[in-house]
Every structure is written in structure tokens, then in C-alpha cells.
Amino acid sequence: MKIVAFDIETTDLRANMGVMLCASFLHIVPPGYYSNHRRTPTKPYTLYMTRDKALPYDPNPDEELAVSVRDELEKYNLVVTWNGKMFDVPFLNARLLFHGERRAHLQWHLDLMYQAGGTQNRIGGRALATVQQFLGVPQEEGKTRLEWDVWKAAGLGDVSALKKVMRHCEKDVEVLSMAYWKLLGGVSRLERSR
Hints:
Blueprint: E1 3-10, E2 20-28, E3 45-48, H1 63-73, E4 78-81, H2 84-98, E5 108-111, H3 113-116, H4 128-135, H5 148-155, H6 159-183, E6 191-192
Parallel strand pairs: 1-4, 4-5
Antiparallel strand pairs: 1-2, 2-3, 5-6
């Protein structure tokens, strides 16, 4: 089974006002999988928005990115997210709808945010940063903080700002992949995506 941690970064929380800046992926493999030293452990990789030089002020420059992200997700059997059922996948699908493209068809989707709170675990919050701290993931290996202006600048095409957002997104999938192994024991069933 091919499993991937997935996260997106956007310019707004609403798909009618915002666009996708990037999406990061990290192939999740069992601990010890690379003990044979012939392969290197997986690293996050990121797809990102590029602006057409002929249309530098295009307010909706994320069509190519949205389609590429959809196609990449469909290569995996299980997509693991944090709040992905309420944000990442619906935002992606809304942007695909806006551009006249078909929605993403995921085989299985596991949103680990629901394993952190409610009846599963009373960690103290559902934010990924809270779970990172609770699980003891060192700060230098975990989530990064970004100022709002970095997101705004990235949305306007600032390459340096976009690189910072991409690194932030990659850190999120790294923390998510660590949380996957810690929280997996509480998963009683998987649901097929619709």
C-alpha cells in the first residue's frame, strides 16, 4: 500500500478568495524499511504555483498546480492529512471546480486530526503544533512559524517568500508522518473517500 502525508498552503482559507501556493507530499514507509542501506529514506517534495510571465497579474494562477496535485494524490492508496477533510481536500476540489477540472478521487483518506481529540485522545488541542509538542517532536524538526506578510508576498509571486512557505509545508508533512506512527494504534477503521 502506498501511503502519503499531504498538506497544502494557500493565500486564504476560502477558495473563492484564495489560491493554492503549494502542496507537499511525504511517502510514509514503515520504521526500519531503509535498514538495508541501499535506499535512502523518503524526503518531502513540493509542487508549487508558478506565475505565467505573460500574465503576471492573473488572479487565479493555480490551475496547473491544482491539476498536478490532484494527479499526484491519485497515485497513492492512502492519503494522510491534518484537517484535510475540512480544509485541504475541499479547498483543492473547489479550485479544481473553479478551473473546470474534475475533482480529486482519493482511494482512502485518513485525517489524523480526529485521532488527537474527542473520544480518541485528550491531548489538549487539535492543532498539529500542539500534537507535535505532546509527542515530543523536537522544535527544530517540527513546524515553522511564518509571518502573514510572507504568505501575502508568496501569493504576489515573491520567489523568496514562496520558498519559505514551501519549507513550512514540508515541515508539516514531516511532523504529520511522525504523528501517523504514534496515532495509528487508535485508528479503528478507514473510510473510502467520496
